[in-house]
Each structure stands twice: as structure tokens, then as C-alpha cells.
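TL;DR need C-alpha cells for one chain.
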Amino acid sequence: MTELAKLTSPQAVEYFRAGTIALLPCGATEPHGPHLPLDTDVTIALAQARVASRKLEALGIRTLVMPPLSYGITNYTHGFKGRISIRAGSLFALLEDILSALDYEGVRHLVLLNAHLEPDNVRVLRNALLDWSEPDKDRLHAIFADVTRRKLAAELGAEFQSGDCHAGSYETSLVLAADPESVRPHAALPAVQIDLMQKMQQGVKTFREAGADQAYCGEPARSSREEGERLYEILGEQVVRLARENWPRLFQPLS
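>> reply
TL;DR here they are.
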């Protein structure tokens, strides 16, 4: 596993070229209940990228884990301290600049991984990748490991699929596996079921309005490090599968 931020400039020469799969983790800085850190989404996306990188490199694929995007659109946590939200245009422009820079440097394959699932944020990520969505040997091709899509979501458990998973068992388990020292006591936290997806469809715009008055929903008390490790295996395999489907030539053994 290679992380761009830890390379020197001479070392980066080996990775800024065709044949490398760049992995770009995207998260946000926002409240995640009384038990998880503000960088929860960043932690999850970066850990997913690291797992995917190890799996791809075991198959002989050169990978480069990019520094994560730590800010996004976080309107649903309005009213809770610690929220840093940026405008949709700012997020779009930042992604466009990063993709353009990687294209200029010769990288031809990129997977975007995102753990901040607010609908407006996901929508911007999808739109930013549209101009890079066609395979072209002379241009960067970017794909989105979008866990909000039904096929991928179905592999991540009932709580995730319900939508009531913000700092619940799903996310708490993932942080326990990736950064356990950052998790505060959560065994006594009650389950919070707010039917978030339905309320979003009804026009509710914040967690407070939806009934999540501590900025979490789901069942954090049911989380475990072992469950987080199991989920990362699934998330990593999803990236490998998407890469294999989109770039089969990278996976062909050299004759």
C-alpha cells in the first residue's frame, strides 16, 4: 500500500503514470453523536482505500492512496457544533481540479470512495465524475464506488440499508476497527430509529428535525471491532470488483 502524502517527489514518479489506480477517499467534518469523532467519515473512507489498496496490490495492481477530502456538504448536522460545511460549487471545483491534475500527471485510473452519505454531497460527487466517466487510454477514467447504490448497499447490512446508520452500529463498528482510541463510551446509548430516508423524502432537512437530537441514529451499542473488520473486507472487495469490471486489462497477467 502506497500513500501519496508519504512519498517524496522522486518516489512519486513511479506512481504518476498509466497502470496506477488512484484511490481518492472522500469524507466530511461533522458531528457523529456523543461517541464518534468529527472525522468519522474521513476515517472510514481512508480505511476503505487502504484495504482496497492492499487487495489490489496482492493482485499485482499498482495503487496510490490519495490524501482524503475532509470537507463536504453537511447540511443535515446544522445546529450541532463541529460542523464544517462547504458549498456544492466548492466541492465540485475541488474534485475537478484534483482529477485534472492527476490526468495531467499521467494517471489514467481513479476510484472515488465516499463515506459521507448526505444526498446533496453524493449528488455533487456523481456530477463531478461525469466528465471523466468514459474510458480513454489518453485520459483519466474515474469511477465511483458509490455505496448508496442499491447493489453495493445490499452487501452492507440491514442498518445501512434502512438509512438509520449515521453514527449507528455500521459507522461505529468501522471506526472501532480503524481508529478505536477515538471512540467514546457508547454501550449505554439507546437505539434511535427515525426513518431517516422516509423523512428525507418528506422534505426534512436536518437531523434535529428528523428526531436525532444527539446527531446519531441507529444502534451504536451493537457495534464491534470484529463487525467493522468484516465490513472493511466487503468495502475493499467492492472496489476490487468495480476496478476489475471497468479495467479488465489491468488484471491480465503479463505474458
